[in-house]
Design goal:
- It is built from ten helices and 14 strands.
- By secondary structure, the chain is of the alpha/beta class.
- The chain has an eight-stranded mixed β-sheet, sandwiched between helices.
- It is globular and about 60 Å long.
- A hairpin with a 6-residue loop joins strand 2 and strand 3.
- It binds threonylcarbamoyladenylate (TXA) and magnesium ion.
- The site of magnesium ion has 4 residues, from loops.
């Protein structure tokens, strides 16, 4: 149910939960002042308790209350705000409820680049918000997706279709190093350039630094099988069980095609990704081949990372 900015502000300030637009994907927004409502967000999504939420801020001045200390390296990535970059800081444990952090001592913060949401945030203060999908389903990039997952009667602040359509990049930022916790709409190369050093690699087998890394996200009902060359795709597509291909406009195949647009046009590929995944489910496909014959630099890496997570 679409509601006005005024209604959304009122509901959130009373401890309600409202679906909010961002430039990446829709979120389920809740005020940090209502830890009980934060717990309800986890229930609503069926989200594991140990997977913390991102806190969204409308102004830089809202940051200082949420964190213990801002590392000096932050000045090098500040230019990505407002925008699709989430930074993990040491949390101010007094102001960020444990439910938001899933008991961790850190907090993930981002300043979204969406006019309507920023207007809301200036009135409500910081909002915790996970993506507004049922856990395990593709993230919602328009109002219809939120309605399909959370219900037509759920309050939604309509900000139109999401401009980027894929989630923010999540990084852990220290004084002298940084880690890429989730690939997203800000690519690793741009961060490396801004920070002047490569991301620290996570050792294989160590505990995930971001709890979200261990979950299979964005999963459609169909089983996706990734093909990394034209030859592999051709070879597999003669097997009877495959019903469709998730690929690009020029994917040459006898099976029905769900297209992400032109090959190696990653901004538009990513923007279409979650709608395409939902389309595969709507058409009832169970076994789908994925054309993964694309570049993997820049946002191509984000596309590849998402595909690998979807495959599980
Ligand atoms: O673009 C986005 O980031 C969207 C919009 C709504 O802002 N939000 C989003 O939230 O994708 P969610 O909850 O679906 O994903 C948040 C990710 C998870 O992978 C979670 O594990 C990680 O951020 N995260 C949150 N707090 C963290 C923390 N303190 N340390 C490490 N990772 C954290
Ligand atoms: Mg999510």
């Amino acid at each position: 149910m679409k509601i006005t900015l005024k209604k959304a502000t009122e509901q959130i300030c009373r401890g309600g939960i409202v679906a909010i637009p961002t430039e990446t994907v829709y979120g389920l927004g809740v005020s940090l002042k209502f830890p009980r409502s934060v717990k309800t967000v986890f229930k609503l999504k069926g989200r594991p308790q140990d997977n913390p939420l991102i806190v969204h801020i409308g102004t830089l001045s809202q940051l200082k209350d949420l964190v213990k200390k801002v590392p000096s390296s932050f000045s090098r990535v500040k230019k990505f705000w407002p925008g699709p970059l989430t930074v993990v800081f040491d949390a101010n444990l007094k102001t960020v409820p444990s439910a938001v952090r899933s008991g961790l001592k850190t907090v993930a913060v981002r300043m979204p680049d969406h006019m309507l949401l920023r207007k809301l945030l200036k009135k409500t203060g910081p909002l915790a918000a996970p993506s507004a999908n049922i856990s395990g389903k593709p993230s919602p990039t328009c109002v219809k997706h939120v309605e399909d997952d959370i219900g037509v009667h759920f309050p939604i602040l309509d900000g139109g279709a999401c401009r980027h359509g894929v989630e923010s990049t999540v990084i852990l930022l220290k004084e002298k190093s940084w880690e890429l916790l989730r690939a997203g709409f800000v690519c690793r190369e741009d961060l490396e350039q801004a920070l002047g050093l490569p991301a620290t690699k996570q050792n294989q087998g160590t505990k995930p630094r971001s709890p979200g890394q261990k979950y299979r996200h964005y999963a459609p009902k169909a089983k996706l099988v990734l093909c990394f060359s034209k030859k592999e795709l051709r070879h597999k597509s003669v097997q009877k069980k495959y019903q469709a291909v998730l690929g690009f406009d020029d994917t040459d195949n006898r099976l029905p095609l769900v297209s992400l647009g032109k090959r190696n046009r990653f901004q538009s590929n990513l923007k279409r990704l979650y709608s395409c995944l939902r389309r595969l489910d709507d058409r009832g496909y169970r076994f789908v081949l994925v054309d993964c014959d694309h570049q993997v630099s820049g946002l191509g890496f984000t596309l590849r990372e998402r595909m690998e997570k979807i495959r599980g």
